[in-house]
Amino acid sequence: MSQRKPRTNHIAGVSLQPEVMAYLDDLASRMRTNRSWVLNTVVHEYARFIEKKNLTPLASVVQSAGSKEVVIQL
């Protein structure tokens, strides 16, 4: 019997604006992949861009919401 690899992904429910959802669906269709892959790729690329620019993304929002800072490992 084959052993299954433990799941490392986390399922997150998010609310997207209709135009964002339509764009993600269109992009996923054109790339022949799924919406989740597209969204993960967009976030990773954005994080890489921000880190190269040495910018703090949404700093005022993070501080005002009392959220802890999260860093995406590239």
Describe the structure.
There is one protein chain. With 74 residues, this protein is mostly helical. It has a domain at 18-65. Helix content is 54%, strand content 0%.
Topology:
Blueprint lengths: L17 H14 L3 H19 L5 H7 L9
Helix pairs in contact: 1-2
Shape: extended
Q: Which percent range describes the beta-strand content?
A: under 5%
> What share of the residues lie within helices?
40-55%
Major beta sheet summary:
none
Structural class: mainly alpha
* Euclidean distance between termini CA atoms: 35 Å
Count of extended strands: 0
Strand and helix order: HHH
> Helical element count?
3
Rg estimate, integer Å:
16 Å
* Low-pLDDT runs: none
Summary tags:
74 residues, mainly alpha, 3 helices, 54% helix, extended
In short:
The chain is mostly helical and 74 residues long. It has a domain at 18-65. The protein has 3 helices and no strands.
